[in-house]
């Protein structure tokens, strides 16, 4: 395949482009030609391909190093595209799409025959959402069809929340990265499964169970909770975000109660370890042996900063990243989920 060359004859693949209308049109052309591009969304950056082109979708899996049976989310320009992709749409799903789209909610629905197996990992369901980032929406409107996009990181690693992160992760594997600034939400969308009897949250996100209950008048199940796991013959759809080890820094991560944070950090430092600390409420002890990263005490602001902070701490060659555990309140639940997985998957590949 011929690649665009700069005047100096170097490949221009992987370049970051400010998201002007010209650049957005170019990205849409690249998608039509079967290539993959980095796309900002309000949650995290996505690795985008034409969802109806199986060869393009395969490039996503190759670029990420992701197993082929992990399904992708299809991004739509608007809810009126749903019938092309979803076969049976319960009225509660329509109510939620009305309430939260464009926005960080992914609905799992029975798929139509149009949706390629490459997108769904061979399952009979498909994940769909309309993102609210103005650049994603503009790209979708110009493209005028579904865009498959997982987070634009290598498999198992921290999701990117800036264009530079995408370039770091994928380099020339993407044709270009549209720069839409830092992602507003900062963690991945809430995934709500409507393909079985009762709606069930497969991945927590900025849209909480209470938000959903306010619209449909009942609380969704949480993954692993109650009856659904017991329904014989109705295996839960695979969600790679549900693997215990995910979103993981290379540096070993430990979660610690606020009361133990300083003591533990000082102890490890005394043993000669290089220690980074991520905290939202503990005052900096000004111990010169510690790398101290203060996070916002507000959940939304914390989520916005989380992945960029983890990524930055992960470059410091520390022996440990100690993270203060989070408040129990519902607003923190999705973030706590990501920290758990970061801790489990951390420390690999060192
Ligand atoms: O916020 C987001 O959702 C971002 C942005 C780019 O939209 N995307 C994202 O994609 O997080 P990804 O692939 O990194 O995570 C999507 C998760 C995966 O764990 C996948 O297994 C699950 O959604 N998923 C996709 N389709 C599914 C389906 N039909 N059934 C069950 N899970 C599905
Ligand atoms: Mg991901």
Residue runs with pLDDT of under 50 for 5 or more positions: 226-236
Determine the strand fraction and express it as a percent band.
15-25%
CATH architecture of the largest domain: Alpha-Beta Complex
- Count of individual helical segments: 11
> How many strand segments?
15
Topology order in helix (H) and strand (E) letters: EHEEHEHHEHEHEHEEEHEEHEEHEH
What is the number of independent domains? 2
Shape: globular
What is the subunit arrangement here? Answer: single chain
Average pLDDT over all residues: 92
Report on this model:
With 350 residues, this protein is α/β, with parallel strands linked by helices. The chain is 31% helix and 17% strand. Strand 9 and strand 10 form a beta hairpin. Helix 1 crosses helix 6. Mean pLDDT is 92; it is low at 226-236.
List the defining traits of the structure above:
single chain, about 350 residues, alpha/beta, DHBP synthase, Rossmann fold, 2 domains, nine-stranded mixed sheet, four-stranded parallel sheet, 11 helices, about 30% helix, about 15% strand, globular, binds threonylcarbamoyladenylate, binds magnesium ion
Q: What is the secondary structure topology, with strand pairs?
A:
Blueprint: E1 15-18, H1 21-32, E2 37-39, E3 46-50, H2 54-64, E4 73-75, H3 82-85, H4 91-100, E5 105-110, H5 117-120, E6 125-129, H6 134-143, E7 147-148, H7 163-170, E8 176-179, E9 190-193, E10 200-203, H8 209-216, E11 221-222, E12 253-256, H9 258-270, E13 275-279, E14 290-294, H10 299-314, E15 320-324, H11 333-345
Parallel strand pairs: 1-8, 4-6, 5-9, 10-11, 12-15, 13-14, 13-15
Antiparallel strand pairs: 2-3, 3-7, 4-7, 5-6, 9-10
Helix pairs in contact: 1-6
The structure holds threonylcarbamoyladenylate and magnesium ion.
Residues 150-151, 159, 241 line the site of magnesium ion (MG).
